[in-house]
Amino acid sequence: MSFDLKGLIASRLGENYDLHARHLNRTLVDVQRIIGFDRVYANAQGAWLYDLEGNAYLDFLSGYSVYNVGRNHPSVKRAIHDVLELDLPNMVQMDCSLLSGLLAEALLKKTPPHLDAVFFCNSGAESVEGAIKFARAATGRAGLLSLDGSFHGLSNGALSVMGDEHFREGFGPLLQSCERVPKNDLAALEKRLSTRQFAAFIIEPVQGKGVNLPAGDFYQQAQRLCRQYGTLLVCDEVQTGLGRTGRWWGFEHWDLEPDIITVAKSLSGGYVPCAAVITRRSIYQKTFSRLDRCVVHSSTFGRNNLAMACGLATLQVIEEENLVERARTVGAELLARISKLKEKHSLIKEVRGLGLMIAIEFHEPREMAMRMGWKFLHKVEPELFGQMLVTGLLSKHRVLSQLAGHGMDVVKILPPLIIGEKEIAHFVGALDSVLDACRKFPGPMWDLGANFVKHTLKRSNTAESATKAG
Question: Which of 133, 266, 402, 439 has its CA 20 to 30 A from that of 276?
Answer without folding.
Answer: 402
